[in-house]
Fold this protein.
Amino acid sequence: MNIHIIGGGNLGASVAIGLAKFSSNHNITVTRRNISKIQHLEALGITLATDNTYNIQQADVIILTVKPYQVDLVLSEILSVVKNKIIASAVTGLSTEALQEKIGNDNQAIRIMPNIAAQFGESATCISFHEDNIEQGQKVVKLFADLGTAPVIDEKLMDAATVLAASGTAFALRYIRASMQAGIEIGFDWQTALEISAQTVKGAAKMLMEEQVHPEQLIDRVTTPQGCTIAGLSEMESHGFSSSIIRGIKAALKKIKG
Ligand SMILES: NC(=O)c1ccc[n+]([C@@H]2O[C@H](COP(=O)([O-])OP(=O)(O)OC[C@H]3O[C@@H](n4cnc5c(N)ncnc54)[C@H](OP(=O)(O)O)[C@@H]3O)[C@@H](O)[C@H]2O)c1
């Protein structure tokens, strides 16, 4: 496929790298105004441009990864030259319906919510689209399934997906940082504490995904009666571990919804 990514920042560059590394042979073009910051993408065979319309007529999928306030300007540049294109937007807060209205009925709007782990083929990319665009939506699903998981969800859950999958990356990293800090307190240097904490989270996530079970089932396997794990869990819970995560996720959602 010919893939055109507009906005080669944190997310756009991550998606481009992920597609170049983990998806089948695509021609990828990435645009932004200051391409000197992403020159390293050229080594992966990715074309860079400052003109958003460069190569766009050949594009099978256009991916929008600019900030919400940059959308109208970008669309005003490309809409006169694109027709019958799939436009997949990762722009926070821009609904499929609002995007479709902006791009007109000549093009098909798909909403995607990847995260920056796309670069490593490990994004959780939630995708939604109108039932009239199932064929185009499935094309986008296929693309992002190469970069991790790509569940199709109801449009009304897209803000929730933003919080759980995109902000969730930061939340998970904060857990790892806290675990690492504790690791330093109990005797490790930071590098070793980080390696152990990150790999332990990766291992826990992998077990869940492979076994498709509820986390408590796996927790039960590592929790000996009267042992150290249950003592640690009880102490964490008495300081609001689960409830602070739930409250944080709900606060983030409240912020998105304004
Ligand atoms: N970061 C995440 O984890 C994440 C996850 C899910 C969704 N999102 C959403 O994805 C979007 C991008 O987020 P981000 O974190 O990647 O932001 P970012 O790092 O600021 O990337 C946006 C990029 O757009 C480029 N840009 C600005 N104006 C442009 C224009 N007129 N034409 C072409 N490129 C232009 C900017 O580069 P120049 O200044 O060089 O043009 C910048 O690199 C946001 O809507 C965000 O809500 C982000």
Q: What stands out?
A: DSSP finds nine helices and nine strands in the chain. Residues 6-12, 31-34, 52, 65-68, 70, 73-74, 90-92, 113-116, 166 surround NAP (CB under 6 Å). The mean pLDDT is 96.
